[in-house]
Specification:
The structure is a single chain. This protein has 9 helices and 10 strands. The chain is globular. The longest helix is centred in the N-terminal third of the chain and has 21 residues. Helix content is 41%, strand content 15%. With 236 residues, the chain is of the alpha/beta class. Helix 2 packs parallel to helix 8 and helix 7 packs parallel to helix 8. It has one domain: Glycoside hydrolase/deacetylase (TIM Barrel, Alpha-Beta Barrel), CATH 3.20.20.370. Strands 2, 3, 4, 7, 8 and 9 form a 6-stranded parallel beta sheet that branches. A two-stranded antiparallel ribbon has the order 1-10. It binds zinc ion.
Length: 236
């Protein structure tokens, strides 16, 4: 190869690498919020089932709200009764990984197992997959496509892993929610049932109805929204 090619080639490779890293951070092409013209939102809970599942189920039942739970394989094995209760209550069950490990810490063959595991693998799709921490490796999109999983992210974080009070978290979440939003909450933190209790009437006051994520339905994240995600997301 002639020398004068090296600089443009290096620049092109660097640009491709940066675009890949930025694209993965932005979530471009993954499923994000739904259409802003409908008055629907989707509540999603990551990391369960857990000891907190019955409390979340009680609040959801009392307030008549459906939700979508992104389950991990170890949690499903540990809390089979809670998983059954979620299913029987009609909530959505989707995958949050064979392990709760960031994609960048898994070699590709383990990430394949990570992406492929699903609590409803034997049932007809669509099957959604939310990577732990929203983290993508360079292989995540390809592996998800091969495994027929759709990567599903979010646009509003409930931040229930921080030490703030339920009332503060609810107020901050409601300030950011809009029609079509996908809210990220967790099945595990002690604060989340109380946060949910405050969140649901707030959504109703704004004329927003919680639906299952698949009924939102979520749309693919475009470049503008992706850039906004880079600035505001902390990962779940
Ligand atoms: Zn998680």
């Amino acid at each position: 190869m002639r020398r004068e090619w090296l600089l443009p080639l290096g620049a092109a490779l660097l640009a491709a690498l940066l675009a890949d890293v930025l694209g993965r951070a932005a979530g471009w092409g993954a499923l994000g919020p739904g259409d802003g013209r409908t008055r629907r939102v989707a509540l999603t809970f990551d990391d369960g089932p857990s000891e907190r599942t019955p409390a979340l189920l009680a609040v959801l039942a009392r307030q008549g709200a459906p939700a979508t739970f992104f389950i991990t394989a170890p949690a499903a094995a540990r809390w089979p009764d809670h998983l059954r209760a979620l299913r029987e209550a009609g909530h959505g069950l989707e995958a949050h990984g064979r392990w709760h490990t960031h994609a960048l810490r898994l070699p590709p063959w383990r990430e394949w197992a990570q992406v492929r595991w699903h609590p409803r693998a034997a049932e007809p799709g669509p099957h959604l997959y939310r990577p732990p921490y929203g983290g993508h490796s360079p292989f995540t999109r390809l592996l998800a496509r091969l495994a027929r999983r759709q990567v599903a992210l979010w646009d509003v974080e409930g931040r229930d892993w921080t030490p703030a009070s339920a009332a503060d978290l609810a107020a901050r979440t409601l300030a950011r929610v809009r029609p079509g939003s996908v809210l990220l909450l967790h099945d595990g933190p002690a604060v989340t049932p109380e946060l949910l209790e405050a969140l649901l009437p707030g959504l109703r006051e704004r004329g927003l109805t919680p639906v299952l994520l698949r009924d939102l339905p979520p749309h693919r994240i475009g470049w503008r929204e992706g850039l906004r995600r880079v600035g505001t997301s902390y990962g779940g």
